[in-house]
Amino acid sequence: MSKGKTSISNARSYKEIGEFWDSHEIADYWDQTYAVDAEFDIRSEVMFYSLDADLSARLHSIARRRGVSPETLLNLWVQEKLQSEISS
After folding, report:
1. In this structure, what is the dihedral angle of CA atoms 16, 17, 21, 25, given to the nearest 10 degrees?
2. Are 70 and 59 in contact (CB under 8 A)?
3. Within a domain: 48
4. Residue 61 dihedral angles phi and psi, to the nearest 5°
5. CA separation (Å) from 68 to 8, 55, 60, 62, 63?
6. Are 43 and 51 in contact, with CB atoms under 8 Å apart?
7. Is 39 exposed, middle or buried (0-12, 13-18, 19+ CB in 10 A)?
8. pLDDT tens per residue, range 12-50
9. Residue 23 falls inside a structural domain
10. Domain range holding 33?
């Protein structure tokens, strides 16, 4: 957390902030809030592709064994394959 910044929760870590807001309502502290200007880039795009059920089960099994999500593993494999195709 940045020094010099205060929060309603008076927490010393993001974990403590989360724990505070898990048990409190913002409406009770609304008078202590203020408006801020913020910009966000939300242009990321997700595409979904169908995958055979057997392939999906095998993917899940391998991903679990490697300790990553099936989505992460599949993206890594596709990146590797595309890179090898580009290099050929």
Report:
1. 130
2. yes
3. no
4. -65, -50
5. 36, 17, 9, 9, 5
6. no
7. exposed
8. 888 999 999 999 999 999 999 889 899 888 777 888 999
9. yes
10. 1-38
